UniProtKB/TrEMBL annotation:
It is a multi-pass membrane protein. The keyword Disulfide bond does not apply. Residues 14-150 form the GtrA/DPMS transmembrane domain. The chain crosses the membrane at residues 12-36, 56-75, 87-107, 127-144. Keywords: Membrane, Transmembrane, Transmembrane helix. Signal peptide: none annotated. This is GtrA family protein. The keyword Transferase does not apply. It is found in: Membrane.
Amino acid sequence: MKELLLRQKQVLLFIIAGALSAIVEIGSFKILSVHLPQIFIHENNFHGIHYPLSNIFSTSCGIITNYFLSIWFVFERGKHSKRREFAYFMSVSFLSTILSLIVFQMFFRFVFTDVINVGFFVFSQEMISKIAAILLVSMLNYTVKKKVIFNG
């Protein structure tokens, strides 16, 4: 078991960094999705897009958190210069953000059409859609970041 953990250390660290980034992203999404509709009346539904600003701002918070956790704990540097590495990371993250927004909208409209009650906590439609989008996109992110940006 210990050998398996040592071999999969990078994957385990990526999962931990991703989980911490997801906590930042989900927490900021919850705060923003509650308060931004009070400022921007169309935040709940902007031409069929639900919570666009909350999604973009919270995803940005998660990306920045994930970048720093990735370079500090998960991946080794050296394949690219710091500037190029950051540019690649942000480019992949930008594309991931667009994918995450699309996946969120699909989950929100078609998959999670009601709240999910787990007994001690009730997940709203937007929260469960956000969590599912993060999980789906993070699998793609690991592969791309490992193989393209950092030492693969």
